[in-house]
Structures are given as C-alpha cells and as structure tokens.
Fold this protein.
Amino acid sequence: MSEVALPLLGHACLGAALAWRDGERISVARFLGDAHRLAALLPVGGHVLNICADRYRFTVGLAASLLAGKVSLLPSTHTPETVRQLAAFAPDAFCLADGACDIDLPQFHYPELAGPDHVGPMPTVAADQLVACVFTSGSTGTPVPHRKTWGALVRNAAAEAERLGLSPTAPHAIVGTVPPQHMYGFESTVLLALQGGGAFWAGRPFYPADIAAALDAVPRPRVLVSTPFHLRTLLAAEVPLPVTDLVVSATAPLSCNLAAETEARLRGPLLEIYGCTETGQTATRRTALTAEWQLFRDVRLSVEDGQAWAYGGHVEQRTALGDILEPTADDRFLLHGRSADLVNIAGKRSSLSYLNHQLNAIPGVLDGSFVMPDDEQIDGATRLWAVVVAPGLDRAALLHALRERIDPLFLPRPLLFADRLPRNATGKLPRAALDELCRRLRSDPA
C-alpha cells in the first residue's frame, strides 16, 4: 500500500497531553492551535534554522514549518562558519529563536500565540514531504545534508516506539536532557512523543537536582532520555530519584556497570540506542544484560570486506556505517567501535572506545578521554594522550589502575588532569575543543 499522507500526531484524541511546560499540561488541541497560528506568521523563506531552547516551542516551530511547507535545518553546531555554510546551502534560510540570538541569519522571534484550541480533524502531511535536512561534517569540515522525509521519520519513530514498548494506549511522559535539535533528541523526545502518543517535558534539565525535579513533575510511566555523561553525573550527585519506568541512552558507548547502577537507582530498565545521522536509529540493547544489539523490525545489516551496511525498514537507502560491526544472528550484532577509532601501536590493536571505557571504569574517575594526536610520535610509534577528571587520584595511582586494565603500550603519555572536559549539550567531546584543552594543559600543567 503506497503512502499518501500520514497524521501529524499519533494521539488518540485532541484532549490528550502533548507537553508539560512551567507546570502546565498542554493538550494536543492547544498544540495544534499554536502550530497553525505560528505557520501563518512565519516569514517567506523556505528553510528554517530552529534554535528554540524550549522543547515545546521547538516542536511548535517544527509543526508550523511542516504545515507551511518549510524545511527545518538541523546542523550539529551553530558556529559562525557552520552558519555561513548553511546560508550558502539555503540562501532563503531564517532563524527561529525564543531567546537572545547572535546567529548571522534573518531572525524571527517566537511570538505570543494566544488563541483558541484546534478543532476538527488531525492534520496530515504527505509521506514524501521533505521535513528536515540533518547535517554531518564531511572530511573537509563542510556540513553534509541528509534529507529526511515525513514518511521515513514516521516509520523511524514507530519502530522506536515499538521497541521501547510505548503506544498511545499507554501514554508516556518523556524528560530529555538532550536538545531537540540533535538527531537523537529530535527522534527520542520530539518525534517519539508526536508519533507515539506521549508527551514531553518542555525544558532541558542539566543539573541532577533539576533532572530529578522534572521526572517528579510528570506522571508515570516516565521515560528519561539521556546520555552516559548525564547519567554518570546524575548518579554521582546522590540526589533522591523518583521511579523512572524506562531510561534511554545514546551518543556514546555505555558501560555495563553504569547501566546496571542506573537501573538500580531509577528502578527501571535502561535501553541503549544505536544509530547515526544518516540512518536514524536502527538498534537497541539492554546494556546491563547483554552486549548484543538487536536491529529494529525490518532493518537489516550486512558486512562486506569489513564494511557494515544498513538497509530496510525506515532506512531509505543502503547506507555505509562508520562502525566495526560483527553480525551474530539475522537481527543481532556486536559493536567493536568506530572505524576511525582504531589504534595500532607496535602491531597491537585497540580502539579509543575501549580505552575510554576502561579509563572511566576506574573508581574515582569522574570523566576522562584518550586522545590520538595527529602528529605525536616517539621513535616512530604513536603515543596516546589522555585527559581525566579525577580529583581524588594522583598520576601514579591512575597509571597503576590503567596498567591493570590495558596493555602498557596504550598507556597515555602524557596523562593530563582537568577540572572538567569540554562536553557539548549531548555529552559528546568535540575534537577541536578537546585538542585545545590538551594544548592548554600541556603548556600550563599547574
């Protein structure tokens, strides 16, 4: 059966909850009224850079853009150079913002949208309508667009909802620590709510007490969408945590120990998501119980000459993956790290992902990362660096602990200590920021 048009929302009725904002329950009818009003006010340009920090306003902006036939631009960063490249890609682009904005594009500030709730049928969107361009960085640093149609996004959200056990018949409340502009946050907080019949917390809590308060403010069943970095920080704070029925994690590998501790403290299962910008989400695993990933229904994996490919289901075209994957069954695989993460020293191989896992598993290490410098060699051999946040450990103790876990060839030289690592809003470590931190620490070790 060919797809012609698909509903904008998967909720059972207009009175269902779509969001909680400032303690207020916002219904589907209110949301659709706001979306229609905003759609009528948007500027002429056909491309929207939606930087609204409030998740509800971002989602209204997304829906309004859909209704107005505009395409949302979702780059991984908003640096001046990236914005210049976006302007070259889409000269008619404008910026939709709900706060102070220094982005060098024509700006449209999110307005007051008071008015009546929506009545009538649920709006539909053509399955082949282009919804968003999500950008990754190419080898030259120029953002590479990946076009997402409404049909593919709906199938992606449906596959995730099925795997997570969420449906409109069992409405769920989503609290996200990741921004809605990031592909993971876009899929697992915005699209999952729109298509899975749930509702989301409009804010993006960062500090542990704020995360706990947000979870406590929404009804059960509760879903926390987060990252390993945010989860580690949350558990380390030892604040009282409400029962959370499901925890979802992505953006970086999650250790079995952290997954098990998260499940124990939040009293609910944790599912880790595997995917990439090009394909969207494609697999999950319950990390506390297994290392194997299970593909979403209808998604397939093949490995040819060491290159992994994903296809089928919501993956619209056969796509090469940047990870080293080992199929273990038709719908299952093991992840052995990023192809670009491989380290070869004196004939021995490891990966930065594995080394980071071992570093962060050491008691007393709050955060840490290995770094493979572009040109650091001693006697022709590559030397790894590492930077760590471990206020209770000294260099000798940390190196001793590392020797218990990794081959001595991979011990970092130098080992640098920092007060914090320059992680971004999704918990990732931008390479440029990490390199700058290492250079500063090496020049001023005190």
